Amino acid sequence: MQFPEVGRRDFAKLLGVGGLAVAAPSLLTGCSEGAATAGRVAAARTWRVAGAAGTGLGGFDTAIKKLMQARNISCGSLAVMRKGRLIHARGYTWSDDAALSVQPTSLFRLGSLSKAVTATAVMRLVQDGRLSLSTPVTKLVDMTPPPGMTADPRLSSITVKRLLQHLGGWDRDITPDPTYQDRLTASALGVPLPVTKAHMVKYGAGLKLNHAPGSTYAYSNYGYLLLGQIIEKVSGMTYAAYVQQKVFAPLGITRTRPGRSLKSGRAPGEVPYFSQYTGKSVFDAAGTTVPAPYGSFNVENRTAMGGWLASAVDYVRFTKIFDLTGGVLTKGSVDQVFAKPETGLNSGGSYYGFGWSVRDVTGGKNTWHDGSLPGTSTIVTRRYDGVTWAVLFDQRDDPSGLAYGYNEISAPLHGVANAITAWPTTDLFGKYF
Fold first, then answer.
1. pLDDT tens, per residue, the chain with 433 residues
2. What CATH number does domain 11-117+241-432 carry, 3.10.20.90, 3.40.710.10, 3.90.1700.10, 1.10.1040.10?
3. Which pairing describes strands 257-258 and 308-310: parallel, antiparallel, or unpaired?
4. Which CATH number fits domain 120-238: 3.40.710.10, 3.40.50.300, 3.10.20.310, 3.90.580.10?
5. Alpha-carbon dihedral 264, 270, 271, 276, rounded to 10 degrees
6. Domain locations in the chain?
7. Segment 147-153 long-range contacts (CB within 8 Å, at least 24 positions apart)
8. Do 277 and 1 meet the contact criterion of CB atoms below 8 Å apart?
9. Which of 360, 369, 411, 366 is nearest to 385 (CA)?
């Protein structure tokens, strides 16, 4: 089956109820090649669960195994943190290949969970006085369109803040997401494949805005591509180097890295990715048919919007920043991350902050995000009661037709968390950092 050139699911559809609670092992293999083989007989598969968990948390294992088994997901990982302590760290393997072994430290593509990373880097620049949220993107990035295309005069009204909150005016439900238009970009610019981030920026600069900047929420990968370029411009460093130094290093996170598109570029400990679909390669003019997760889109160009690799334990540790741990962001900066946008609440009563969806609830805020790429389905949840989890899977589709949306993955975990009356006080971070 051919994979259509689309990105993540329409995130706005998830904001109505999503994210709201109801009321040292070896990295060598991660998960091996056999996990990406379709059509395995489920009855031949067996479970292997690695890692550790505090007392009384078996319900989380049961929930994840049920989600994976119903969809024949081969590789998964779950990390749960409560009030700054890592209390559950698991890697799950559901396969008939005895060589497969997912660890709590195995690396997965994060998809759009990467956006919170980019937003954090932007806010560090703001906090350090090197960038203003009110600066127009046109003063920071060259937005000259390709020959034959005209820049929308409203581009100068798109500020850094509006990019962070998806209020730039690009709407992929009206105009196809330019970050997935590699062939059109190459044609418009007269350049060969693969295109670069600079090519994608230039092509997008020639598209007419679908909404007045600041007027309408519309999820935009292109906006986060621009934020990555802004980080490079202001910091004088590569995007990845700045993030590693200013965001991850203060927390002792060292495994994270930008992902690679092709199977040959897999990092040590990175899982393989599965999809029932194929697509045309964006790396050659011939349009060679390739497995959808490997070459039908350019991961290297997507780091700022969706291309980071991390383990589940890495990601929940990253979220400690928003609990004011690690010295990366101050309370004032975190408050800005979760502040309401100029458009106010959406119809479901939530809103998009800087890289996070947010809902105000009695006792605090629930914040969350999901990620989706061919071969990737991920979620992160931060509950008002101090419970945080990250779930990473190595596929987002299968012949069952079951959904992989934020709500489908998070709901059973909320059920488990809501039933726990005595939380363990163990802290497993020392095992992995």
1. 544 333 333 333 333 333 333 333 333 344 544 434 444 456 699 999 999 999 999 999 999 999 999 999 999 999 999 999 999 999 999 998 888 899 999 999 999 999 999 999 999 999 999 999 999 999 999 999 999 999 999 999 999 999 999 999 999 999 999 999 999 999 999 999 999 999 999 999 999 999 999 999 999 999 999 999 999 999 999 999 999 999 999 999 999 999 999 999 999 999 999 999 999 999 999 999 999 999 999 999 999 999 999 999 999 999 999 999 989 999 999 999 999 999 999 999 999 999 999 999 999 999 999 999 999 999 999 999 999 999 999 999 999 999 999 999 999 999 999 999 999 999 999 999 9
2. 3.40.710.10
3. antiparallel
4. 3.40.710.10
5. -50
6. 11-117+241-432, 120-238
7. 148/188, 148/206, 149/188, 149/203, 149/205, 149/206, 149/207, 150/206, 151/205, 151/206, 152/207, 152/208, 152/209
8. yes
9. 366
Tokens of 326: 């690690």
